[in-house]
Amino acid sequence: MRVDKHIEKLKPYEGGKPIEELRRELGINGRIIKLASNENPLGPSKKAIEAIKSIADSVNLYPDGDCFYLKNKLAEKLSVSRNNIIFGNGSDELIELIYRTFATGLNDEILYCYPTFVEYKIIGMSFGKKLVEVPLKNFSYDIDALIEHINDRTRVIFLNTPNNPTGAIIKKADIERVIDNAPDNKLVVIDEAYYEYAISEDDYEELLELYKKGNVIILRTFSKAYGLAGLRIGYGIARAEIIDYLNRVRPPFNVNIVAQSTALAALDDREHIRNSVEVSRRGKFYLYSEFDRMGLRYVKSYTNYVLFDVNRDADFIYRELLKRGVIVRSMAGYGYKTMLRVTVGTDEENRIFISNLEEILNV
Ligand SMILES: Cc1ncc(COP(=O)(O)O)c(C=O)c1O
Description:
Layout: H1 5-8, H2 19-26, E1 33-34, H3 46-55, H4 68-78, E2 85-88, H5 91-102, E3 109-114, H6 119-126, E4 130-135, H7 143-148, E5 154-160, H8 172-180, E6 187-191, H9 195-198, E7 216-221, E8 234-238, H10 240-249, H11 257-268, H12 270-294, E9 305-309, H13 314-323, E10 326-327, E11 329-330, E12 339-343, H14 347-362
Parallel strand pairs: 1-10, 3-4, 3-5, 5-6, 6-7
Antiparallel strand pairs: 2-8, 7-8, 9-12, 11-12
């Protein structure tokens, strides 16, 4: 089978192995904790679980392609119009839809700072796009350098705030500068997957109103603080014209029936979100204090994960933690050879992670 070069070059996404398979492979008898994918360690809310049970009888039906009830509720919550919202099978799907809708030309360029969320790159490569990657500066987006790279071929600019994997944010004024420098046929994507965590920090600025400013789409998700990663549902907020174009390309039943009714219920459970954010904040400060005690550098995070420096080969530390049943992410593949990213877990999970890390670093 012959395929185009840009497909040949792709490597399949390597997801983590199922926990039970890891247990078998590594011969671990005790507990395995997964702090690798920035999921909510508390799980979904009780209301969400009830919604899953009650929709089970209806999965013989196709989902509502318009996400009618969910869209109504979210529009009310955000004080935007229904036609400013689009849902996706995870915000991942919306990233792909953005490519398919707004970056269809042969010479189109995609611009972002790197390291950032790796899907911008993977999806871009699958479409054979030219990816323009500007290095981060002090773990944050380098907005001056980014703006310098905007040209006639630029079609999509990704701004990830807080940025995955560093946890650093982009100031609202800097985002506005990018928007002002991206006229006509360029789309600015503000990826706020960690919004609920970020907004609990005093100095995180609300960005929602920026969708009115130009060719902008704000992406958020139910995968993180809402604890629904396994159901795959995220959303975008943009001017009606942009949403309309995306809807022309969107597969008709892209968001499944269980995800729709569960997200609807999850929106009602504010207590669960508050609690999830609180547990994460507490855990993050615990991790900071333990890293300080161990003399390890870390990046201040506006999210539910922390990037930290072990001053040793990150892949080695990753493997040692894995052997002890603690799964984190090595950042060596991103060029941070001595850094790892850990998702903030429950208090107990955080303690287990720290005691294993300390044991490994002291050997
Ligand atoms: C920055 C960022 N954007 C988007 C996503 C994708 O989220 P979803 O589960 O909604 O596809 C993630 C997931 O890790 C992320 O970190």
